[in-house]
Amino acid sequence: MAEPIVSLRGITKRFGDFVANEAVSLDLYPGEIHALLGENGAGKTTLMNVLTGLLRPDGGEIRFRGRPVRIDSPEVAYRLGIGMVHQHFKLIPPFTVAENVVLGAEPRRGLLFDRRAAREAVRALTEAYGLAVNPDARVGALSVGMQQRVEILKILYRGADVLIFDEPTAVLTPQEVREFLAILKRLAGQGKAIVFITHKLKEVLAVADRVTILRHGRVVDTLPAAGADEGLLAEKMIGRRVRLAPEKAPARPGPVVLELRAVRERRTGQDALAGVDLALRAGEIYGLAGVDGNGQRPLVEVLFGRRSAEGDVRLFGEPILGLPTKALLERGMALIPEDRHREGLVLAMSVAENAILTRYDRPPFVRRGILRPAAIRRAAAEIVERFDVRTPSLAVPVAALSGGNQQKLIIGREVARRPAVVVAFQPTRGLDIGAQAHVYRTLVALRDAGAAVLLISFELDEILALADRIGVLSGGRIVAELAPEAADEETIGLYMTGRGDVRHGDAGRGDSGGDAVRRGGAGRGEVGSGDDAGQEVAGHGGADRTDEEKAGDGR
Amino acid sequence: MRRGTRPSVAALFSASAADAGLAIVFGLIVGAGLMLLGGFDPLAAYRALAMKAFGSPYNAGETFRQATTLMLTGLSVALAYRAGLLSIAAPGQMALGALAAAAAGIGLPPVPVVQPVIGLLLGAAAGALWGALIGTLRAYRGVNEVIAAIMLNWVALYGVNLLIRFGLADPANRQRTRTVAETARIDAPWLSDLFAHARLSYGFFLAVALLGGYAFFLHRTRLGFELRAVGQNPVAAALAGMKDRRLVVAAMALAGGPAGLAGAIEVLGVYGYWTVSPTLPAAGFDGIAVALLGGAGALGTALAALLFAALSGGAAGMQFEVGVPPELARVVMAAILFFIAAQNLTRGLRERLGRVERRNARGEEAGR
Fold this sequence. Notes:
Number of domains of chain B: 1
Strand order of the largest sheet of chain B: 1-2
CATH topology of the largest domain in chain A: Rossmann fold
Largest sheet of chain A: 6 strands, mixed
Membrane topology (chain B): Multi-pass membrane protein
Strand content of chain A: 15-25%
Shape of chain B: globular
Order of helices and strands of chain B: HHHHHHHEEHHHHHHHH
Oligomer: heterodimer
Number of domains of chain A: 3
Protein name (chain B): Unspecified monosaccharide ABC transport system, permease component
CATH class of the largest domain in chain A: Alpha Beta
Number of helices of chain B: 15
CATH architecture of the largest domain in chain A: 3-Layer(aba) Sandwich
Radius of gyration of chain B: 22 Å
Main location (chain B): membrane
Distance between the termini of chain B: 39 Å
Strand content of chain B: under 5%
Number of strands of chain B: 2
Radius of gyration of chain A: 25 Å
Subcellular location (chain B): Cell membrane
Structural class of chain A: alpha/beta
Shape of chain A: globular
Transmembrane segments (chain B): 12-37, 64-81, 88-108, 114-134, 146-168, 200-218, 247-276, 288-316
Strand order of the largest sheet of chain A: 6-9-10-3-11-12
């Protein structure tokens, strides 16, 4: 490594009294993948926003190729060759790949947009960097992984030598993650400097050359990734030892509490429910894995009366499909929603009011239509106390709380209703490790108290850490059910992408009674090793051994 | 699921007291600038305006009378806004409320107290029903409530005109209804005397009481809780089991009540009749401005109503004393609204930035 391409020297950034970055120094060398690791709020994004000109530092200096520079706008960063792929893509879906890539710096012929030149430029880039994308494809029709490539092409097109990725793997399947990491390596191999912001330790170890760990806005350490391990990195990141996966006794599943049979929607498409069969038992955590956009949201909406569907849903044996949300809540359904700001909280209302949002109309919170603030405050105080919600007071708007504390409030609120079924949809989205561990412990505690927990998550690690049984949702159906012992990322990943269930056709339908574990098997042989090939022909029926049975053989 | 509140509208109604004060000052400065351009003395004009609005007991009383109407129409808009809806239905609802009250004052047996109470209730009910109609269109047919209200305002106006012509018209003057019975009136003679026979009625107290009740309703009742929740986050409210569609209807109906009442008070407390009119009552539209300036709160709405009543009532004084055209008062009102809107919109931006910063800060604390 010769001289660093970018050198941050003592960067300090304050927001009011709060110091987001304090004297942070960081060198980036051409050809290196530099992981930037830290919890939410540790200052990673702030630092990169300083580097890309979105924020101006209060102190410190940025050197680019040895020369001090002032990056006071994103345009300056672009000109220097610093580009960022944001967590949320900034693409225009109806435009083609080529159009999106050149947007803002379009090749022209006279006054006109030179479409051919744009296409050629993009094709040349895809070849040079091995990023297979069709320049003429409409971006809206591409998978998330492909869209990410378009984002990468965008900054490469502008001649970036420093590429910053903000949590790039959060939205990808395990297979896509692997492809993405390969792309990173290729880019680094061509001399690009890569900053990889993440909190996933495994990926850091897999791909990074060096790791810088931030905590409370300060650099804890910068070290080579080789020789580091997850435990070490986690400890540096949090400052203490944390066991993320909770201690968890084997589940003692009770009777089936919630049962779905052939639940489908009229509409079609990847995200439409196409016949979901599921039997959820008391005292178990059922992990529903799958790639975003394969029916997770419709499923939750159907379960909570916000979307109509055909088929049969039973709670304690009684049909509940089509009941209004209130009736479902009263019968013991509880939701920890995916998007707490949009679905879980009324941000402008107080902590206390949000603490009773799902039972505001029951005694003792209301009497003859009049709210009783004392009772509301008491209940809220109890939740705040029991779930360690850090809030300055019960009267402040819930918007004033951190994400982790908001989530604790939601979970506390739902637990306080003593639910029979808890649907937890991406319950740790955007939470730091400490808060994540808290959520995990609570879910396991709910299970041990006899609740049926449906954990819907796009994070396989989360499913693997918590679930007593795993289902894979793809194309609006549960295409496989596995015991956690039989499940590994590889297998689940194949089912998730839909490649695992090409052959199923009607396997999910037909025999929907009884225990739900029956599908799977076929897909694995198809893409995986040849041993299972015989099962491919089976479709469904006698030869259709389940993965759970296979796992049983191994025990 | 229902569409959410338009964020720009949400930002519009979030005026704080400081914002409002600043906007008023700027508005007056703009008015003064225009007067200087026209060769008038702004200080003298504003002094004349203030004198006309508050300078004598009678003038003050008349300002309070106008404020009564604006408080009610402002309350109407504010209430709908709290439920995430932009109501511009107040003009039509005023006309309907006025007609209903006139009908009660003309047609019902002349029993003191009972007759005016029924008249007021009918007026409020007429406004509420009209609101419920708009709410139903919005909730169950997806019709934007602004569009529905714009069109239904005219339906209400011409419907009222039609009913005056065919049924309630004064034989001597077919352009207006017969005069309501003396027993139907809600005059407050003692109050009127206090203000040198200004046309002040018990309607003023009704408006003040309703604004007081409004604050309680919003924060201490179940329905108020539901309306606020739905207004601020319809998705979360629905997932919490609230009947979001029904709440939209309820909110529009509740908002229609005060607007209808405003019309009823004009008939039973001021004029004693209602006229065929080619235009919608301006006080209905002014309710939007009042709620906007008042930040959709109870006290703010009351004060804003008073200010706008003073500006429009005082305009005549400005013309008489200094020769400034009375339209200039409307220009000042418009400028005030402009500054409120501008402040709120930029404040929305500022807050968004601030939120990001604060979130960074808090994430940090949580990690500690």
